[in-house]
């Protein structure tokens, strides 16, 4: 016959075992419920269309940049692998700006999986596709005309701005076109020179009814641009 003290210990162990078993059962039920809920969320995510997501975001009056980010996060969640994921054009336009602004922050956000950012090589490829020629952007005026046609009479008006900064003198070779960069260039192929540029002039268009500034042309000069040259460039721009 067991003593009363041993019976008490045995009873305590039995109660602990029952309590552990019941706790395990509750945790298992909770796990099954969460697994089922996660599976349903994945199914809803896979069935979610980009148009529905954008409509919901617009109803919530989210900024355009946040809508692009939200759409890209959902697309990254749907991707089966990192290699199979393709970034959208709007997102690829924002990523180089973030990488240029702070390379360290870009690497941190990407390595920590806070944002679905592409690798730095992809960003550099996007930047390399940007034209490096001086002069006015010939492909700008047609899209601008098409965009302004859908605007109100007030939004069609804007102001032409130009700004000039001093830059460091440096000559380098563009590997894609095998041409020199850093020389004086006024956008005229007939006026080639071997002098190094130390000033950069930028023309921009700013509409009255919207909050953005669109660069139109860039020019490289040695020394501050003279008033006569500014007048000539302005006439060239207005003649387009």
TrEMBL record:
Residues 24-51 form a coiled coil. Keywords: Coiled coil. Residues 133-233 form the Transposable element P transposase-like RNase H domain. It holds the Pfam family TNP-like_RNaseH_N. InterPro entries: TNP-like_RNaseH_N. It comes from the Eukaryota. The keyword Coiled coil applies. This is Transposable element P transposase-like RNase H domain-containing protein.
């Amino acid at each position: 016959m067991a003593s009363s003290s041993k019976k008490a210990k045995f009873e305590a162990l039995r109660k602990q075992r029952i309590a552990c078993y019941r706790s395990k059962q509750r945790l298992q039920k909770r796990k099954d419920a969460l697994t089922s809920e996660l599976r349903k969320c994945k199914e809803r995510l896979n069935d979610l269309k980009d148009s529905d997501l954008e409509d919901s975001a617009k109803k919530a009056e989210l900024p355009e940049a946040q809508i692009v980010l939200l759409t890209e996060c959902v697309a990254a969640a749907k991707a089966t692998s990192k290699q199979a994921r393709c970034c959208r054009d709007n997102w690829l336009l924002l990523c180089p700006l973030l990488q240029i602004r702070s390379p360290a922050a870009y690497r941190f956000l990407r390595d920590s999986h806070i944002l679905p950012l592409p690798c730095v090589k992809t960003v550099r490829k996007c930047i390399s596709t940007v034209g490096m020629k001086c002069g006015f952007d010939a492909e700008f005026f047609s899209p601008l005309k098409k965009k302004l046609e859908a605007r109100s009479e007030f939004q069609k008006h804007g102001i032409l701005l130009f700004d000039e900064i001093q830059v460091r003198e440096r000559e380098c070779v563009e590997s894609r076109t095998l041409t020199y960069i850093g020389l004086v260039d006024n956008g005229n192929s007939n006026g080639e020179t071997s002098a190094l540029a130390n000033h950069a002039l930028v023309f921009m268009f700013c509409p009255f009814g919207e909050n953005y500034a669109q660069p139109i042309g860039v020019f490289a000069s040695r020394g501050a641009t003279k008033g006569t040259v500014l007048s000539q460039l302005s006439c060239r721009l207005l003649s387009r």
